[in-house]
Amino acid sequence: MTHGSGSDDKGDPTHPWANLTAAELDALDTVSRNLMQASLQSQKLMSNVMQKALEGEAVMPQADPFHAAPEFKEVWQHIVTQPDLMMKAQAELAKGYLDLWSNTTRRVMDKPVEPTIKPEPGDKRWRSDDWTENPVFDAIKQSYLMNQHFMMGLVQGVEGVDERTKRKVEFLTKQMTDALSPTNFALTNPDVLRETMRTHGANLTQGLENLVEDLQAGGGGRLALRQTDMDGFRVGIDLATTPGKVVFQNEIIELIQYAPTTETVKQRPLLIAPPWINKFYILDLREKNSMIRWLTQQGFTVFLISWVNPGTELKDKTFEDYMHQGLLAAIDAIEDATGETSVNTVGYCVGGTLLASTLAWLEANGQPERIASATFFAAQTDFELAGELLLFVDDEWIAEIERLMDAQGGVLDGRTMADTFNLLRSNDLVWSFVVNNYLLGRQPQAFDLLFWNADQTRMPKALHLWYLKNMYRDNKLAKGELDFNGVKLELGSVRTPVYMQASRDDHIAPYPSVYRGARLFGGPVRYMMAGSGHIAGVINHPDAHKYQYWTNDALPGTVEEWLEGATETPGSWWLDWRDWLYQRSGKDVAARQPGGGKLTAIRDAPGSNVLVRSDAKDAGKAEAAAPTPAAKPQTKARPKAAAKAKPATKPKAKPKAKTATRTPVKKPAKARAKTPSSPS
């Protein structure tokens, strides 16, 4: 009887299943059923996705939102007309494959060999031991890396193409080659194959269920890739727990005054303006790494702006509105709360760009004394070297953003913002979760930093388009071409003392870009560069004993010259900044309680703005927000008398900073890879 006859011939000793045990047969049956179920589910899923795509949902990004086809065509037309470039790249690729085949053969024979090509340091896609120890998977890995190197080398080496076009094609080519990594496919990922055998294929069916859930959450065929368990934390209970009160509010901000932890505080209050593209609690994530809590422990009266998560009713709010109803209204409110007419300020990321513009506006209006000092965290005022985000500000992309905002009622949803930033580190923040959630069939774990990263806010149309065009695209602030209602903004006229923080591995505000901005101010500037990236470079509690920072009292013409003369100090830069603030904060006064001045406490920190979730069905309302009394009318900037300088006083038990050493700074070619758990 032949095997193809369809009859049951398992008793035949020549049958391939003859020697399988009952348990093995049962396992094989389970695997077959799971794979069949996965196949059927995937067919149904693809059918639903294609149907949604054909329906043409207006809120869905276009297939080519970058409109990059002309740029790709231009670059590759130049590549094929440069035979030296093509021949060199092809010869290098051919030699690499010959070496790889030879080395793989030697490895199969248990002979030691050196790899033909190695992954970049920090590339965590290849963490599994199989990618190194198994000759087959090692060959797959190296083959992929050589092909990626071949493609990227052609784009990077082409001549006759303007730099912006080349950078755009290079970025998108990197996105495509990252997507095609063997780690992203079940049959070429050893971890997925092992998990499939262990679970008898249940990981694939569970992964498809996860994918269906994420598509349903995204709506309209759009994928809402989960990076963490969004039910794993509650803001105000697990995160953002530093005690304080909301003491002022209007339609754009809540102003939080934090409770003191010392008997005396510095006379001059400290006002923090975080970015409005994220929730503020990155500064107050957990007690062990909270900058806000630490600042209160250093004897500062800390105020913080909590920006509204805007709905469509605020779509016409402008950058100037955010200045008047945000920063300037907060400064007025702080005067009512404390009696102080001058404040120290902090601006983080886009909050720093707003702060710089406000400094120039106050200078032009004869009111520079209202801000005694300005600290900038990872903030740009000159966007000439703003990195890969410049790819998102050409006319085609801005038109696509405007189309999406119109489809969403005049706001840009938080998911679009998150997707944009995730693309800058797609291997860590996209593909690692595709593998974990959909191929391994696992649920994302609760992680505070990724929870914050996913808790995005919306952007008003008028504000966002203005910012993209005037700052990123046209760089008008740095050029002195901005004016607000006829008031020209000139950073060179600003004499306010500035502390400028940058991070060595920042991919959003690259340190060379921040340095260019530091040199625009007309007053004293202390430029400091911290280790790590956009988030970890800023949020580095001294108790963590992590990273390092570099300082240089000079501010020479180029950042390369600054680096040559920089001194490295291990640990957190917060201590250096604290001492700088002490010199500009006046004498010690009795600690101030929130609501103890002319302003009464409205509700407990962290307030209600921060509770509004962009991904909630009822997206315009806060979760369990406290009752809101009538808002105090917004206040406009008004002339004030200059505050008299007060002698600085230091705390009685001032911690000692670690000894500084003159160490050459390692200049990175690009931002270092981070763990998949960090969006920094």
Automatic annotation (TrEMBL):
<dbReference type="GO" id="GO:0016746">
    <property type="term" value="F:acyltransferase activity"/>
</dbReference>
<feature type="region of interest" description="Disordered">
    <location>
        <begin position="614"/>
        <end position="680"/>
    </location>
</feature>
<protein>
    <submittedName>
        <fullName>Polyhydroxyalkanoate synthase</fullName>
    </submittedName>
</protein>
<dbReference type="GO" id="GO:0042619">
    <property type="term" value="P:poly-hydroxybutyrate biosynthetic process"/>
</dbReference>
<keyword id="KW-0808">Transferase</keyword>
<dbReference type="InterPro" id="IPR010941">
    <property type="entry name" value="PhaC_N"/>
</dbReference>
<dbReference type="InterPro" id="IPR010963">
    <property type="entry name" value="PHA_synth_I"/>
</dbReference>
<keyword id="KW-0963">Cytoplasm</keyword>
<dbReference type="InterPro" id="IPR029058">
    <property type="entry name" value="AB_hydrolase_fold"/>
</dbReference>
<dbReference type="GO" id="GO:0005737">
    <property type="term" value="C:cytoplasm"/>
</dbReference>
<feature type="compositionally biased region" description="Low complexity">
    <location>
        <begin position="622"/>
        <end position="634"/>
    </location>
</feature>
<feature type="compositionally biased region" description="Basic residues">
    <location>
        <begin position="635"/>
        <end position="673"/>
    </location>
</feature>
<feature type="domain" description="Poly-beta-hydroxybutyrate polymerase N-terminal">
    <location>
        <begin position="123"/>
        <end position="295"/>
    </location>
</feature>
<dbReference type="InterPro" id="IPR051321">
    <property type="entry name" value="PHA/PHB_synthase"/>
</dbReference>
<dbReference type="Pfam" id="PF07167">
    <property type="entry name" value="PhaC_N"/>
</dbReference>
<keyword id="KW-0012">Acyltransferase</keyword>
